[in-house]
Amino acid sequence: MKHYALNIAEISAKVVCAFDVNMIANQVYEHNFGHAPSNKTIERLTAKDIEKYKADCWLLSPPCQPYTQGGNMKDIDDPRAQALIHLINLLPKLEKPPNYLFLENVKNFEESQSREKLVQQLREMNYQVKECLLSPIQFGIPNHRLRYYMMARRCFDSQQIDEESGATTATADEGQIHTKWPFNSEYQFEVPELCQFIENTANENLQYRVPEKDILKRHKFRFDIVRPNDHKTSCITKAYGSHHLQTSGSLVQTQHLDRVEYDWSDPKSLLELGLRFLTPKEISRLHAFPMPEYQLKPNHSSLTKPRSFTPPHCLPHLEFPDPVTLMQRYRLLGNSLNCWVVAELLRCELF
């Protein structure tokens, strides 16, 4: 998804290599971009391996399990954190470290030892570090997906002094976690209604209908039910579309749209609402992937000020190969980032 974000940001960049051990994700990547990512594990990379790519920027998405309740929050003691720790240890050994680094992870990463170790190494190597906790809602997209983001830019002697304050740029944002977008601004983007992202034709498709048995067995559980005129959906996880309805994402109400109050003690009454899952295409739209139905438009963007959200139109569009099943699509999208959020942070803050 960060490759898509580079395209959406309209940054002149070439991805020299992508790494992923998920075979299905690699299949989708190759289908869309024409070449397969490397499935070599990060822990096996040497300084020589990395330097042969001559990469000026690293875009990182370390496994989130070491920093979540579900993963027991073992942090640096979790084997899944070792890939990031390995890269941190390799950084000072590189003859030409990357000038730019972008990292995303779940909320709680900002309080981790992994983050502390990374920030310490970056500052020792004279990187300017910016950090934030942001959700697509703040960018004008009706989906809540709070994520931690770090942007780091390597500073050189001529860049180290801020002309106004006299402070070194490497310490200008030290310790600050931005929670507003745009940073240090009270401006808020308007969030459109969900109807601009959903397909009415999916309402009658039984493969997206929530099974009655999964609704009836959850007495007094409050599902996140959304209607077409709503302006927010909840975070979609990799369990979306399965029987794990709790906190896996929003369910779309397709019938009795005037009903906004629900009797949670009577699950049977919810069956009248025609609840369905969001389709993979709808989730892809909410994650701001370029989609085939969006027409290609000429490039007129040259400013670095934050933009109001518009559906991305750049190529390639996101398409799933036919062998990728519905559940595999849900899992991949549940693990995905919001492409527009990443694009705007790359465009306005990192580059």
From TrEMBL:
GO terms for molecular function: methyltransferase activity. One of its GO terms (cellular component) is nucleus. Gene3D superfamilies: DNA Methylase, subunit A, domain 2, Vaccinia Virus protein VP39. It holds the Pfam family DNA_methylase. Keywords: Methyltransferase, S-adenosyl-L-methionine, Transferase. The active site is at 64. GO terms for biological process: methylation. Belongs to the class I-like SAM-binding methyltransferase superfamily. C5-methyltransferase family. This is S-adenosyl-L-methionine-dependent methyltransferase. It comes from Circinella minor.
